[in-house]
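Entry for the shared binder. Reason: the reviewer on the internal report wants the predicted structure included alongside the sequence.
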Amino acid sequence: MLGIWGTFSSVVFYLTLAVGLGGLLGNALVLWHLGFHIKKGPFAVYVLHLAAVDFLFLGCQLAFSAVQAALGSEHSLYFAVTFVAFSVGLWLLAAFSAECCLSDLFPACYQGCRPRHTSGVVCGLSWALAPPAVLLTADACGLLCESMHLLACLCYHAASVAGLLALACAAFAAGLVLLVWGACCSQRQRPRFYGAVLGSELLLLICGLPYLLCWTLRPYLPSFLLSTFFPLATLLACVHCSGRPLIYFMVGRQPGRREPLRAVLRRSLGEGAQLGAGGVSLPMGRMWGLPWLPPTPHPLPDPPGLHVIARLTQFGDPTAGCQVRAVVLTPRPWPAGDKGSPRTRPET
C-alpha cells in the first residue's frame, strides 16, 4: 500500500508540474498579445487581469513544488499564498460574468449608465480586497505562523467561506442566465467571447471547486484525508488556470484554417460592443476600416445641382465573422462642363 501511495503521489506531482508549465506558457502568450498587440476594451481588461492572476497562481505553485521537492516538506504558508491568487481570480471571474450578463440583458441601460473606467476600478478592488480577506483568515487559523486563535479563526473562516461561495454562486448564476437568455429569449448574434466566459465558468465548476472546498474544509479535515485530497485539488486548480488560454484558442480558431495566434486571440477576445436598438453586435476592442472604393454614380435621379457619390466602407474585425457594410452618401457638385450636369441639361 505504501508503494502504491508513493507512486500515486509521484504521478500527481509530475502531472501538476507539467500542467503548470503549460499553463504558464499559455497565460504568458495571452498577456503578451493582449497587453501589447491587441487594443483593450472594457471586457478585455478582465481577461488581461485573469491571465495575470492565473500566471501568478501557477508560478507560485511551481515554485513551492520545487521547494517542497528539494526540502522534502511542505509549509502551510504555501497554500495560503497560492489561495490568494485563486481568490483574486474568483473575484474577477464573478465581476466579468456579471458585467457580460448585464450588457446582454440591458444593452441600452448598460451603454448609458456604465462609467468609463468600471473594469479597471473593479479589477483594482479585487486585487486590493481579496488578499487581506485570505491572509487574515490564514493568520488566525495558524497557516502563516504556529499560533492559532480558535474564536478568531472560526469567525474569519466563516466570513471568508461565505464570501467566496457567494462569488462562485454569482459567477454560475450569471453564466446560466447568459446561456438561457442567449439560447431561448434573444435572437441577437452573440460575440465569440461569450463562449470564453461560459467555458471559464465550466472550468471553475469542474476543476476550481475542489480547491475551494479544500480551503473550506482544511481546519476540520484529519491530516491523512487532507494529504490525500489536497494534491488532487491542487492538480485540478492548475488545470483550471491552465485551461483558460486553451478555451480562448478554441473559441477563436476557425476549422481548416491556419492563422497566427494573434489573429485567433483577437477573434476570441474581440469585445462585444454595446447592443443597440437594432440588435447588432460589433467588436469593441478594435475598429477596422477598408479603403474607400472608387466613386460610382448613384442610380437614383440626380437632385438639382448635385450629384450623389456612393462610397462603401466596412467596420469590424475582418477575422471576427461580424461585419457591417455601410453605404455613405456624400453630396458632390458635378464637374464643370459635364454634359450630365443640371446646368447643361435641356429644360423639359
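Summary line for the report: The chain has nine helices and three strands.
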